[in-house]
Design goal:
By secondary structure, this protein is mainly alpha-helical. Helices cover 40% and strands 6% of the residues. It has a three-stranded antiparallel β-sheet. Strands 4-5 form a two-stranded antiparallel ribbon. A hairpin with a 2-residue loop joins strand 2 and strand 3. Helix 3 runs antiparallel to helix 7, helix 4 crosses helix 5 and helix 5 crosses helix 7. This is Dolichyl-phosphate-mannose--protein mannosyltransferase 1. It is an enzyme of class 2 (transferase). Keywords: Glycosyltransferase, Transferase. It comes from Kickxella alabastrina. Its EC number is 2.4.1.109.
């Protein structure tokens, strides 16, 4: 589709014609204000006399920084032009069969991530570190760590909602949760659900981009 607007062009690899402030329709320059372009060898730009080979076809260009109204005014397919709007702005469209496939995949993903979440009932890596940080947050204990805090704060929030009081210290791998009364299943549930959420998010993103059901799956 032809696209009409004012642009500024800079030389790119493989470009045979570069124009300054040219009006372009489908890659063919009419020059500034309809004049024939001229060459400026020093700056690599063409003004009013045309490119050396006389061709008016552009192979590479860079848009000038223009405000939205000036970019779209007079542009075919711009503001006010409803022709082929579905091509320019495709609708979010996931078919019924894709939703069914997604549902089956989510069920499988939930089984994989949530099955026997309570086993083992002991501290495992990386709970040694994240459980310890969660306890420090809940107790208001100062600590320093080189990593960003969001994941640790989320674990602390999950522990708070599950009933963890911050006393258990997660000192070493293998410590018994049951004997200490730690609500570890609730704390493990948070990362498990986040991992599960990645499945539909990824699937729907690919489907919305127009990929086939097999590719989404």
């Amino acid at each position: 589709m032809a696209h009409l607007e004012s642009m500024r062009y800079r030389k790119q690899p493989g470009a045979t014609a570069i124009y300054e402030d040219a009006t372009v329709i489908s890659g063919i320059s009419t020059g500034s204000a309809g004049t024939t372009p001229t060459v400026d060898n020093a700056n690599g730009l063409y003004g009013d006399a045309g490119p050396p080979n006389g061709a008016g076809v552009l192979y590479g260009y860079e848009k000038k920084d223009l405000d939205y109204s000036s970019q779209s005014a007079g542009a075919i397919g711009g503001v006010g032009d409803t022709s082929n709007s579905s091509d320019r702005y495709p609708r979010f469209n996931v078919s019924r069969s894709q939703w069914i496939t997604l549902g089956l995949i989510v069920i499988l993903a939930a089984y994989v991530r949530l099955w026997r979440l309570s086993n083992p009932a002991n501290v495992v890596f990386d709970e040694v570190h994240f459980g310890k940080f969660a306890g420090k947050y809940l107790n208001g204990t100062y600590f320093f760590d080189v990593h960003p805090p969001l994941a640790k704060m989320m674990f602390a929030a999950a522990g708070k909602m599950a009933g963890y009081d911050g006393v258990f210290d997660f000192k070493s791998i293998g410590l018994d949760y049951v004997a200490a009364g730690v609500p570890y299943v609730g704390m493990r549930l948070m990362p498990a659900l986040l991992g599960l959420a990645m499945v539909p998010i990824t699937y729907v993103t690919l489907a919305a981009l127009g990929h086939a059901g097999d590719a989404c799956a």
